[in-house]
TrEMBL record:
This is PHD finger protein ALFIN-LIKE. Residues 144-193 are annotated as: Disordered. Coiled coil: none annotated. The keyword 4Fe-4S does not apply. Belongs to the Alfin family. The keyword Membrane does not apply. Histone-binding component that specifically recognizes H3 tails trimethylated on 'Lys-4' (H3K4me3), which mark transcription start sites of virtually all active genes. Residues 182-193 have a biased composition (Acidic residues).
C-alpha cells in the first residue's frame, strides 16, 4: 500500500515524470532487486501487490484499505502465483500487469485533472516512446512502431509469429492465410477461402487485427488467444503450441 508523500502530478510533463519514476522502480524490482522482490512475494502471506513509487523505488505490500483507493491498485495476489510457475514466467507475468497498472495510474491523473484529447494523446506518445516493463524484463524490446517488420520474424517457426506486435500481424496472414484486402476483389470463391482460413478454430469468429491470435503447430489452425486461454505473455515461453483438440488426441494415443 503506497503512502502519499509525493507531490500530485497535474500537467502532462508531471504525469509522465511520475510514470517514469514508477516504471524505474518496477524495473529495478524485477531485475537488479529481483531476489529481494521474489522473497518478499511469499505465497504464505496475504494478497500482495508490487508498487512502483515516483522516486524510482518499489515495495511489496498489501493493497489499500480504503474503497475506492486513492490511486488504481496493481494486480492483487501476485505472490500466490509465484511457486506455480517458473521464475522467469512469473516475472514476465508480473511485468505485464505492472505495465497495465502504470498506464491506469497515468490516465487516472489525466482524467482527474481534465486532460483534453490533445493532452491525452501527447501523454500516450511520451509513454509509448519508452520500452515497457515487460520488454525490459524479458529482453524483447521491440522496434519503433513505424518499422514494418519485427526483428524476430525471419527464419523462425510459427511460435515467433505469435509474439510479433500488432503491426506485423498481416505478415502472419501472408504466411498462413490470405490477406483480406487483396482477396476481397478476386471473386466469391477466393473470399470463401479467405473466410475459412481466418476463422478461429474454437469460436468460429473472423480474424481481427486488434486481437491476439495463436497458431497450433500441429493442425495449423488459428485461435483467439482468449478462446484457448493463452496470453501474449504465456505465448512468449511456448516453443511449440498444441491446441486443446490436438493435445487431447495425443493424450488418447
Amino acid at each position: 500500500m503506497e503512502g502519499i508523500p509525493h507531490p500530485i502530478p497535474r500537467t502532462v510533463e508531471e504525469v509522465f515524470n511520475d510514470f517514469k519514476g514508477r516504471r524505474a522502480g518496477l524495473i529495478k524490482a524485477l531485475t537488479t532487486d529481483v531476489e529481494k522482490c521474489y522473497q518478499q512475494c511469499d505465497p504464505e502471506k496475504e494478497n500482495l501487490c508490487l508498487y512502483g513509487l515516483p522516486n524510482e523505488t518499489w515495495e511489496v505490500n498489501l493493497p489499500a484499505e480504503e474503497v475506492p483507493p486513492e490511486l488504481p491498485e496493481p494486480a492483487l495476489g501476485i505472490n500466490f502465483a509465484r511457486d506455480g510457475m517458473q521464475e522467469k514466467d512469473w516475472l514476465s507475468l508480473v511485468a505485464v500487469h505492472s505495465d497495465s497498472w502504470l498506464l491506469s495510474v497515468a490516465f487516472y491523473f489525466g482524467a482527474r485533472f481534465g486532460f483534453g484529447k490533445s493532452e491525452r494523446k501527447r501523454l500516450f506518445q511520451m509513454i509509448n516512446d519508452v520500452p515497457t516493463v515487460f520488454e525490459v524484463v524479458t529482453g524483447t524490446v521491440k522496434q519503433v512502431k513505424d518499422q514494418p517488420t519485427a526483428p524476430n520474424n525471419n527464419g523462425k517457426n510459427k511460435s515467433s509469429g505469435r509474439m510479433q506486435p500488432r503491426q506485423s500481424e498481416p505478415q502472419h496472414k501472408a504466411v498462413k492465410m490470405p490477406a483480406p484486402k487483396e482477396e476481397d476483389d478476386s471473386g466469391e470463391e477466393e473470399e470463401d477461402d479467405e473466410q475459412g482460413a481466418t476463422l478461429c478454430g474454437a469460436c468460429g469468429d473472423n480474424y481481427g487485427d486488434d486481437e491476439f491470435w495463436i497458431c497450433c503447430d500441429v493442425c495449423e489452425r488459428w485461435f483467439h488467444g482468449k478462446c484457448v486461454k493463452i496470453t501474449p505473455a504465456k505465448a512468449e515461453h511456448i516453443k511449440q503450441y498444441k491446441c486443446p483438440s490436438c493435445s487431447s488426441k495425443r493424450a488418447k494415443v
